[in-house]
Amino acid sequence: MQVILTICLSLLFFIGVSSINHQTAYAADQSLQHIKDKGTLVVAISPDYPPYEFESSHKGKDNIVGMDIQVMKKIAKDLGVKLKLKSMAFNNVLVAVETGKADCAIGGINPTAKRRQSVDFSDIYYVGGQSFLINKTDKGKYTGQKSLENKKIGVQTGTLQYQLAKTKIAGASVKGMDKSTDLVLALKTHKIDALGIETPSAEAYVKNDPDLAMIPSGYKLSLNQTGTAIAFKKGSTSLVTAVNKSVKEIKAKKLTSQYLADAGKYMKVNTTNTSMIHYWKYFAEGIEYTLIISAVSVVIGVALGTLLALMRFAKSKFLHAIAIAYIEFVRGTPLMVQVMFVYFGIGIIVNLPALLSGIIAVSLNSGAYVAEIIRGGINSVSKGQTEAASSLGLKRGDMLRYVVLPQALKNIWPALGNEFVSLIKESSIVSIIGVTDLIYQLNIVRADTYRGVMPVFVAMVIYFVLTFILTRILNFYERKMKHAK
Protein backbone atom coordinates (compact mmCIF):
# COMPACT_ATOMS: atom_id res chain seq x y z
CA MET A 1 0.00 0.00 0.00
CA GLN A 2 2.79 2.41 0.93
CA VAL A 3 4.73 1.67 -2.23
CA ILE A 4 1.59 2.08 -4.36
CA LEU A 5 0.82 5.49 -2.83
CA THR A 6 4.39 6.67 -3.36
CA ILE A 7 4.30 5.57 -7.00
CA CYS A 8 0.93 7.31 -7.49
CA LEU A 9 2.27 10.57 -6.10
CA SER A 10 5.29 10.35 -8.41
CA LEU A 11 3.08 9.68 -11.42
CA LEU A 12 0.84 12.62 -10.56
CA PHE A 13 3.92 14.84 -10.44
CA PHE A 14 5.18 13.83 -13.87
CA ILE A 15 1.71 13.85 -15.43
CA GLY A 16 1.21 17.37 -14.13
CA VAL A 17 4.49 18.54 -15.61
CA SER A 18 3.87 16.91 -18.99
CA SER A 19 0.36 18.32 -19.29
CA ILE A 20 1.24 21.90 -18.44
CA ASN A 21 1.63 23.07 -22.03
CA HIS A 22 -1.71 21.62 -23.12
CA GLN A 23 -3.67 23.11 -20.24
CA THR A 24 -2.45 26.68 -20.63
CA ALA A 25 -2.08 27.35 -24.35
CA TYR A 26 -3.72 30.46 -25.76
CA ALA A 27 -5.91 30.19 -28.77
CA ALA A 28 -4.13 31.90 -31.68
CA ASP A 29 -6.87 34.47 -32.22
CA GLN A 30 -7.30 35.26 -28.50
CA SER A 31 -3.74 36.01 -27.35
CA LEU A 32 -3.80 39.70 -28.26
CA GLN A 33 -7.34 40.20 -27.00
CA HIS A 34 -6.39 38.47 -23.75
CA ILE A 35 -3.67 41.08 -23.15
CA LYS A 36 -5.96 43.98 -23.99
CA ASP A 37 -8.77 42.66 -21.78
CA LYS A 38 -6.60 42.36 -18.67
CA GLY A 39 -4.75 45.62 -19.44
CA THR A 40 -1.27 44.36 -18.58
CA LEU A 41 1.63 42.73 -20.37
CA VAL A 42 3.49 40.43 -17.96
CA VAL A 43 7.13 39.97 -18.96
CA ALA A 44 9.48 37.35 -17.50
CA ILE A 45 13.03 38.66 -17.08
CA SER A 46 16.27 37.90 -15.27
CA PRO A 47 17.56 41.35 -14.22
CA ASP A 48 21.22 40.45 -13.82
CA TYR A 49 22.38 40.84 -17.40
CA PRO A 50 23.56 44.39 -18.16
CA PRO A 51 23.00 46.20 -20.46
CA TYR A 52 19.93 44.13 -21.44
CA GLU A 53 18.25 44.24 -18.02
CA PHE A 54 19.58 45.03 -14.57
CA GLU A 55 18.62 46.88 -11.41
CA SER A 56 19.73 50.43 -10.73
CA SER A 57 19.64 52.42 -7.49
CA HIS A 58 19.16 56.09 -8.32
CA LYS A 59 18.01 58.89 -5.99
CA GLY A 60 16.86 56.38 -3.41
CA LYS A 61 14.73 54.43 -5.88
CA ASP A 62 15.40 50.93 -7.17
CA ASN A 63 14.33 50.24 -10.74
CA ILE A 64 14.84 47.53 -13.32
CA VAL A 65 16.38 49.21 -16.34
CA GLY A 66 18.18 48.32 -19.55
CA MET A 67 17.74 48.08 -23.30
CA ASP A 68 15.20 45.25 -23.11
CA ILE A 69 13.09 47.14 -20.58
CA GLN A 70 12.93 50.10 -22.96
CA VAL A 71 11.91 47.76 -25.75
CA MET A 72 9.09 46.31 -23.65
CA LYS A 73 7.92 49.77 -22.53
CA LYS A 74 7.62 50.74 -26.18
CA ILE A 75 5.68 47.58 -27.02
CA ALA A 76 3.34 47.90 -24.02
CA LYS A 77 2.63 51.52 -24.94
CA ASP A 78 1.84 50.55 -28.53
CA LEU A 79 -0.51 47.83 -27.28
CA GLY A 80 -2.20 50.28 -24.92
CA VAL A 81 -1.51 48.24 -21.78
CA LYS A 82 0.62 48.52 -18.65
CA LEU A 83 3.96 46.76 -18.39
CA LYS A 84 4.49 44.34 -15.48
CA LEU A 85 7.91 42.77 -14.94
CA LYS A 86 8.30 39.37 -13.29
CA SER A 87 11.86 38.55 -12.19
CA MET A 88 13.29 35.03 -11.99
CA ALA A 89 16.33 32.96 -12.93
CA PHE A 90 17.10 33.05 -16.67
CA ASN A 91 16.62 29.32 -17.19
CA ASN A 92 13.02 29.73 -15.96
CA VAL A 93 11.87 32.61 -18.17
CA LEU A 94 10.79 30.40 -21.07
CA VAL A 95 9.12 27.98 -18.65
CA ALA A 96 7.17 30.95 -17.26
CA VAL A 97 5.90 31.70 -20.76
CA GLU A 98 4.98 28.08 -21.48
CA THR A 99 3.09 27.71 -18.21
CA GLY A 100 1.23 31.02 -18.41
CA LYS A 101 3.11 32.75 -15.58
CA ALA A 102 4.12 35.43 -18.05
CA ASP A 103 2.80 36.65 -21.40
CA CYS A 104 6.28 36.87 -22.89
CA ALA A 105 9.96 36.72 -21.99
CA ILE A 106 12.88 38.93 -22.91
CA GLY A 107 16.54 38.97 -21.98
CA GLY A 108 18.99 38.56 -24.84
CA ILE A 109 17.12 35.43 -25.94
CA ASN A 110 18.28 33.92 -29.21
CA PRO A 111 15.41 32.38 -31.25
CA THR A 112 17.06 29.06 -32.05
CA ALA A 113 15.26 26.24 -33.85
CA LYS A 114 15.17 24.16 -30.67
CA ARG A 115 13.52 26.96 -28.70
CA ARG A 116 10.99 27.55 -31.48
CA GLN A 117 9.64 24.07 -30.82
CA SER A 118 8.42 25.24 -27.39
CA VAL A 119 7.62 28.94 -27.87
CA ASP A 120 6.91 31.48 -30.57
CA PHE A 121 9.26 34.40 -31.24
CA SER A 122 8.90 37.94 -32.45
CA ASP A 123 11.10 39.25 -35.23
CA ILE A 124 14.68 39.88 -34.17
CA TYR A 125 14.93 43.34 -32.64
CA TYR A 126 18.68 43.49 -31.98
CA VAL A 127 21.82 41.77 -33.22
CA GLY A 128 24.45 41.75 -30.51
CA GLY A 129 26.81 38.95 -31.48
CA GLN A 130 28.83 36.51 -29.40
CA SER A 131 32.08 37.16 -27.54
CA PHE A 132 34.26 35.77 -24.76
CA LEU A 133 35.25 37.47 -21.55
CA ILE A 134 38.78 36.67 -20.40
CA ASN A 135 41.13 37.92 -17.73
CA LYS A 136 43.15 40.87 -18.99
CA THR A 137 46.37 39.04 -18.22
CA ASP A 138 45.36 36.38 -20.77
CA LYS A 139 44.69 38.81 -23.61
CA GLY A 140 47.65 37.66 -25.68
CA LYS A 141 47.05 34.02 -24.86
CA TYR A 142 43.45 33.72 -26.09
CA THR A 143 42.25 35.21 -29.36
CA GLY A 144 39.04 33.36 -30.15
CA GLN A 145 37.35 30.03 -30.63
CA LYS A 146 40.39 28.05 -31.78
CA SER A 147 42.67 29.22 -29.00
CA LEU A 148 40.13 28.02 -26.40
CA GLU A 149 40.17 24.39 -27.48
CA ASN A 150 40.64 22.00 -24.54
CA LYS A 151 40.11 24.89 -22.10
CA LYS A 152 37.51 25.48 -19.38
CA ILE A 153 34.65 27.55 -20.75
CA GLY A 154 32.01 29.11 -18.49
CA VAL A 155 28.49 29.76 -19.78
CA GLN A 156 25.09 30.59 -18.32
CA THR A 157 22.83 27.55 -18.04
CA GLY A 158 20.01 27.40 -20.57
CA THR A 159 21.61 29.84 -23.01
CA LEU A 160 22.71 29.58 -26.62
CA GLN A 161 26.29 30.14 -25.43
CA TYR A 162 26.12 26.83 -23.57
CA GLN A 163 25.25 24.89 -26.74
CA LEU A 164 27.83 26.76 -28.82
CA ALA A 165 30.63 25.99 -26.38
CA LYS A 166 29.59 22.33 -26.30
CA THR A 167 29.43 21.89 -30.07
CA LYS A 168 31.95 24.36 -31.54
CA ILE A 169 34.97 24.30 -29.22
CA ALA A 170 36.85 21.02 -29.51
CA GLY A 171 37.76 19.38 -26.23
CA ALA A 172 36.34 22.21 -24.14
CA SER A 173 35.24 21.53 -20.58
CA VAL A 174 31.99 23.50 -20.34
CA LYS A 175 30.87 24.72 -16.92
CA GLY A 176 27.31 26.03 -16.64
CA MET A 177 26.00 28.32 -13.89
CA ASP A 178 22.66 30.07 -13.40
CA LYS A 179 24.05 33.56 -12.90
CA SER A 180 26.45 35.51 -15.09
CA THR A 181 27.78 37.16 -11.93
CA ASP A 182 28.87 33.73 -10.63
CA LEU A 183 30.60 33.06 -13.93
CA VAL A 184 32.49 36.35 -13.85
CA LEU A 185 33.68 35.52 -10.33
CA ALA A 186 34.73 32.04 -11.53
CA LEU A 187 36.67 33.70 -14.36
CA LYS A 188 38.46 36.16 -12.08
CA THR A 189 39.41 33.38 -9.66
CA HIS A 190 40.69 31.26 -12.58
CA LYS A 191 38.13 28.50 -12.15
CA ILE A 192 37.41 28.92 -15.88
CA ASP A 193 39.58 30.25 -18.71
CA ALA A 194 36.90 32.18 -20.61
CA LEU A 195 33.25 33.13 -20.37
CA GLY A 196 30.93 32.86 -23.38
CA ILE A 197 28.58 35.82 -23.37
CA GLU A 198 26.62 38.24 -25.57
CA THR A 199 28.84 41.01 -26.96
CA PRO A 200 26.93 43.94 -25.35
CA SER A 201 27.19 42.29 -21.92
CA ALA A 202 30.88 41.57 -22.46
CA GLU A 203 31.41 45.24 -23.32
CA ALA A 204 29.52 46.27 -20.17
CA TYR A 205 31.75 44.16 -17.95
CA VAL A 206 34.96 45.32 -19.62
CA LYS A 207 34.00 49.00 -19.24
CA ASN A 208 33.33 48.53 -15.54
CA ASP A 209 36.02 46.05 -14.55
CA PRO A 210 39.67 46.85 -15.44
CA ASP A 211 40.73 43.24 -14.79
CA LEU A 212 38.67 41.88 -17.69
CA ALA A 213 39.05 41.89 -21.46
CA MET A 214 36.91 40.60 -24.32
CA ILE A 215 37.72 38.74 -27.52
CA PRO A 216 35.51 37.89 -30.52
CA SER A 217 34.05 34.40 -30.46
CA GLY A 218 35.03 33.49 -33.99
CA TYR A 219 31.81 31.50 -34.35
CA LYS A 220 30.19 31.32 -37.77
CA LEU A 221 26.57 31.83 -36.86
CA SER A 222 23.17 32.41 -38.40
CA LEU A 223 21.04 35.46 -37.61
CA ASN A 224 18.96 33.39 -35.16
CA GLN A 225 22.15 32.65 -33.22
CA THR A 226 23.37 36.24 -33.03
CA GLY A 227 20.10 38.18 -32.86
CA THR A 228 17.72 38.48 -29.92
CA ALA A 229 13.92 38.26 -29.93
CA ILE A 230 10.94 38.15 -27.59
CA ALA A 231 9.44 34.77 -26.65
CA PHE A 232 5.68 34.08 -26.49
CA LYS A 233 3.45 31.12 -25.72
CA LYS A 234 3.09 28.72 -28.63
CA GLY A 235 0.18 29.74 -30.84
CA SER A 236 0.11 33.45 -29.85
CA THR A 237 -0.08 34.51 -33.50
CA SER A 238 -2.15 37.67 -33.08
CA LEU A 239 -0.01 38.92 -30.18
CA VAL A 240 3.24 38.23 -32.03
CA THR A 241 1.91 40.03 -35.11
CA ALA A 242 1.04 43.10 -33.04
CA VAL A 243 4.43 43.10 -31.30
CA ASN A 244 6.26 42.78 -34.62
CA LYS A 245 4.79 46.14 -35.65
CA SER A 246 6.56 47.74 -32.71
CA VAL A 247 9.74 45.77 -33.44
CA LYS A 248 9.68 47.01 -37.02
CA GLU A 249 9.48 50.61 -35.81
CA ILE A 250 12.27 50.03 -33.26
CA LYS A 251 14.55 48.73 -36.01
CA ALA A 252 13.56 51.41 -38.54
CA LYS A 253 14.29 54.24 -36.11
CA LYS A 254 17.34 52.44 -34.66
CA LEU A 255 15.94 52.94 -31.18
CA THR A 256 18.13 50.22 -29.66
CA SER A 257 21.14 52.54 -29.99
CA GLN A 258 19.38 55.10 -27.81
CA TYR A 259 18.22 52.40 -25.41
CA LEU A 260 21.80 51.13 -25.03
CA ALA A 261 23.04 54.67 -24.40
CA ASP A 262 20.42 55.09 -21.66
CA ALA A 263 21.45 51.76 -20.14
CA GLY A 264 25.06 52.94 -20.10
CA LYS A 265 24.06 55.97 -18.02
CA TYR A 266 22.43 53.76 -15.42
CA MET A 267 25.43 51.46 -15.37
CA LYS A 268 27.67 54.46 -14.70
CA VAL A 269 25.41 55.47 -11.80
CA ASN A 270 25.64 51.95 -10.35
CA THR A 271 29.44 51.93 -10.42
CA THR A 272 29.83 55.43 -8.95
CA ASN A 273 29.37 54.03 -5.45
CA THR A 274 29.82 50.30 -5.12
CA SER A 275 30.14 50.19 -1.35
CA MET A 276 27.93 47.64 0.36
CA ILE A 277 26.54 50.36 2.65
CA HIS A 278 25.15 52.08 -0.43
CA TYR A 279 23.16 48.92 -1.16
CA TRP A 280 21.93 48.36 2.40
CA LYS A 281 18.28 48.60 1.29
CA TYR A 282 18.76 45.59 -0.99
CA PHE A 283 20.15 43.48 1.84
CA ALA A 284 17.48 44.76 4.26
CA GLU A 285 14.71 43.72 1.87
CA GLY A 286 16.40 40.35 1.42
CA ILE A 287 16.50 39.82 5.19
CA GLU A 288 12.82 40.76 5.46
CA TYR A 289 11.68 38.20 2.90
CA THR A 290 14.03 35.52 4.23
CA LEU A 291 12.59 35.93 7.74
CA ILE A 292 9.00 35.98 6.47
CA ILE A 293 9.48 32.75 4.53
CA SER A 294 11.32 31.07 7.40
CA ALA A 295 8.89 32.13 10.14
CA VAL A 296 5.74 31.13 8.26
CA SER A 297 7.31 27.88 7.07
CA VAL A 298 8.32 26.97 10.63
CA VAL A 299 4.74 27.35 11.88
CA ILE A 300 3.21 25.43 8.98
CA GLY A 301 6.01 22.84 8.95
CA VAL A 302 5.62 22.04 12.66
CA ALA A 303 1.84 21.79 12.38
CA LEU A 304 2.06 19.56 9.30
CA GLY A 305 4.90 17.51 10.77
CA THR A 306 2.97 16.88 13.97
CA LEU A 307 -0.07 15.77 11.99
CA LEU A 308 2.00 13.43 9.81
CA ALA A 309 3.76 11.94 12.85
CA LEU A 310 0.45 11.23 14.55
CA MET A 311 -0.86 9.71 11.31
CA ARG A 312 2.10 7.31 11.35
CA PHE A 313 1.01 6.15 14.82
CA ALA A 314 -2.66 5.93 13.87
CA LYS A 315 -4.43 2.58 13.96
CA SER A 316 -5.81 3.27 10.50
CA LYS A 317 -3.57 1.62 7.90
CA PHE A 318 -4.80 4.11 5.31
CA LEU A 319 -3.67 7.18 7.31
CA HIS A 320 -0.43 5.41 8.17
CA ALA A 321 0.27 4.69 4.50
CA ILE A 322 -0.55 8.26 3.37
CA ALA A 323 1.87 9.70 5.94
CA ILE A 324 4.69 7.38 4.91
CA ALA A 325 4.08 7.97 1.18
CA TYR A 326 4.12 11.75 1.65
CA ILE A 327 7.27 11.75 3.79
CA GLU A 328 9.17 9.41 1.46
CA PHE A 329 8.13 11.35 -1.64
CA VAL A 330 9.09 14.77 -0.25
CA ARG A 331 12.38 13.53 1.17
CA GLY A 332 13.14 11.77 -2.12
CA THR A 333 12.84 14.88 -4.33
CA PRO A 334 15.00 18.03 -4.27
CA LEU A 335 13.58 21.19 -2.71
CA MET A 336 14.42 23.12 -5.88
CA VAL A 337 12.20 20.82 -7.93
CA GLN A 338 9.40 21.16 -5.38
CA VAL A 339 9.61 24.97 -5.49
CA MET A 340 9.44 24.98 -9.28
CA PHE A 341 6.57 22.49 -9.33
CA VAL A 342 4.47 24.52 -6.89
CA TYR A 343 5.10 27.75 -8.81
CA PHE A 344 4.92 26.53 -12.39
CA GLY A 345 2.89 23.34 -11.99
CA ILE A 346 0.26 23.79 -9.28
CA GLY A 347 0.22 27.47 -10.19
CA ILE A 348 -1.48 26.52 -13.43
CA ILE A 349 -4.69 25.76 -11.56
CA VAL A 350 -4.35 28.69 -9.16
CA ASN A 351 -2.02 31.49 -10.23
CA LEU A 352 0.03 31.68 -7.06
CA PRO A 353 2.43 34.59 -6.45
CA ALA A 354 6.11 33.70 -6.23
CA LEU A 355 6.35 34.48 -2.49
CA LEU A 356 3.33 32.34 -1.62
CA SER A 357 4.61 29.51 -3.83
CA GLY A 358 7.96 29.63 -2.07
CA ILE A 359 6.36 29.53 1.38
CA ILE A 360 4.13 26.60 0.40
CA ALA A 361 7.00 24.57 -1.07
CA VAL A 362 9.38 25.20 1.84
CA SER A 363 6.61 24.48 4.39
CA LEU A 364 5.61 21.20 2.73
CA ASN A 365 9.24 20.16 2.56
CA SER A 366 9.92 21.05 6.19
CA GLY A 367 6.81 19.21 7.35
CA ALA A 368 8.19 15.88 6.13
CA TYR A 369 11.45 16.27 8.07
CA VAL A 370 9.72 17.60 11.20
CA ALA A 371 7.42 14.56 11.10
CA GLU A 372 10.38 12.20 11.36
CA ILE A 373 11.91 14.25 14.17
CA ILE A 374 8.66 14.14 16.14
CA ARG A 375 8.19 10.43 15.44
CA GLY A 376 11.65 9.78 16.85
CA GLY A 377 10.82 11.85 19.91
CA ILE A 378 7.61 9.93 20.56
CA ASN A 379 9.42 6.61 20.21
CA SER A 380 12.02 7.81 22.73
CA VAL A 381 9.41 8.10 25.50
CA SER A 382 9.53 5.05 27.75
CA LYS A 383 6.66 2.57 27.38
CA GLY A 384 6.31 2.65 31.13
CA GLN A 385 5.06 6.23 30.87
CA THR A 386 2.23 5.28 28.53
CA GLU A 387 1.38 2.20 30.58
CA ALA A 388 1.19 4.30 33.74
CA ALA A 389 -1.00 6.87 32.01
CA SER A 390 -3.24 4.09 30.69
CA SER A 391 -3.60 2.58 34.15
CA LEU A 392 -4.78 5.96 35.43
CA GLY A 393 -7.60 5.83 32.87
CA LEU A 394 -6.29 8.47 30.46
CA LYS A 395 -7.68 8.27 26.95
CA ARG A 396 -5.27 7.92 24.00
CA GLY A 397 -5.64 11.57 23.00
CA ASP A 398 -5.06 12.86 26.53
CA MET A 399 -2.13 10.50 26.94
CA LEU A 400 -0.44 11.98 23.88
CA ARG A 401 -1.25 15.54 24.90
CA TYR A 402 -0.31 15.46 28.57
CA VAL A 403 2.26 12.66 28.87
CA VAL A 404 3.96 11.68 25.61
CA LEU A 405 4.32 14.94 23.63
CA PRO A 406 5.67 17.09 26.51
CA GLN A 407 8.42 14.52 27.16
CA ALA A 408 9.04 14.00 23.46
CA LEU A 409 9.46 17.77 22.97
CA LYS A 410 12.34 17.84 25.45
CA ASN A 411 14.05 15.01 23.60
CA ILE A 412 13.61 16.41 20.11
CA TRP A 413 14.21 20.10 20.84
CA PRO A 414 17.89 20.10 19.67
CA ALA A 415 16.99 18.31 16.41
CA LEU A 416 13.94 20.54 15.93
CA GLY A 417 16.08 23.62 16.52
CA ASN A 418 18.55 22.40 13.94
CA GLU A 419 15.69 22.11 11.43
CA PHE A 420 14.67 25.71 12.17
CA VAL A 421 18.23 26.93 11.60
CA SER A 422 18.49 24.92 8.37
CA LEU A 423 15.21 26.41 7.20
CA ILE A 424 16.67 29.92 7.19
CA LYS A 425 19.46 28.77 4.88
CA GLU A 426 17.37 26.44 2.72
CA SER A 427 14.79 29.17 2.06
CA SER A 428 17.38 30.76 -0.23
CA ILE A 429 16.29 28.35 -2.97
CA VAL A 430 13.15 30.44 -3.61
CA SER A 431 15.31 33.04 -5.38
CA ILE A 432 15.08 30.89 -8.54
CA ILE A 433 11.42 31.90 -9.00
CA GLY A 434 12.05 35.58 -8.34
CA VAL A 435 11.34 35.91 -4.62
CA THR A 436 13.48 38.80 -3.44
CA ASP A 437 15.13 36.99 -0.56
CA LEU A 438 18.71 37.53 0.57
CA ILE A 439 20.28 35.39 -2.18
CA TYR A 440 18.22 37.12 -4.88
CA GLN A 441 19.31 40.55 -3.62
CA LEU A 442 22.90 39.37 -3.34
CA ASN A 443 22.95 38.51 -7.05
CA ILE A 444 21.36 41.84 -7.97
CA VAL A 445 24.05 43.75 -6.05
CA ARG A 446 26.76 41.68 -7.72
CA ALA A 447 25.34 42.42 -11.17
CA ASP A 448 25.00 46.14 -10.44
CA THR A 449 28.39 46.73 -8.83
CA TYR A 450 30.51 44.24 -10.82
CA ARG A 451 31.93 43.13 -7.45
CA GLY A 452 31.94 39.36 -7.17
CA VAL A 453 33.18 38.61 -3.65
CA MET A 454 32.13 41.40 -1.28
CA PRO A 455 28.32 40.97 -1.71
CA VAL A 456 28.78 37.24 -1.06
CA PHE A 457 30.74 37.99 2.09
CA VAL A 458 28.07 40.41 3.34
CA ALA A 459 25.31 37.85 2.74
CA MET A 460 27.37 35.18 4.48
CA VAL A 461 27.77 37.39 7.56
CA ILE A 462 24.04 38.20 7.58
CA TYR A 463 23.10 34.51 7.44
CA PHE A 464 25.54 33.79 10.27
CA VAL A 465 24.07 36.56 12.44
CA LEU A 466 20.51 35.34 11.80
CA THR A 467 21.30 31.70 12.58
CA PHE A 468 23.49 32.63 15.57
CA ILE A 469 20.68 34.67 17.16
CA LEU A 470 18.18 31.87 16.52
CA THR A 471 20.57 29.30 18.00
CA ARG A 472 20.96 31.36 21.17
CA ILE A 473 17.17 31.64 21.54
CA LEU A 474 16.73 27.89 21.01
CA ASN A 475 19.47 27.12 23.55
CA PHE A 476 17.77 29.38 26.09
CA TYR A 477 14.51 27.44 25.85
CA GLU A 478 16.39 24.14 25.88
CA ARG A 479 17.98 25.06 29.23
CA LYS A 480 14.56 26.10 30.59
CA MET A 481 13.07 22.73 29.62
CA LYS A 482 15.92 20.85 31.26
CA HIS A 483 15.34 22.67 34.56
CA ALA A 484 11.56 22.43 34.37
CA LYS A 485 9.96 20.00 36.79
Automatic annotation (TrEMBL):
InterPro entries: AA_ABC_transptr_permease_3TM (IPR010065), ArtM/GltK/GlnP/TcyL/YhdX-like (IPR043429), MetI-like (IPR000515), MetI-like_sf (IPR035906), Solute-binding_3/MltF_N (IPR001638). It is found in: Cell membrane. It comes from the Bacteria. The chain crosses the membrane at residues 291-314, 335-362, 456-477. GO terms for biological process: amino acid transport. Its main location: membrane. NCBIfam families: HEQRo_perm_3TM. This is Glutamine ABC superfamily ATP binding cassette transporter, substrate binding and permease protein. It comes from Secundilactobacillus similis DSM 23365 = JCM 2765.
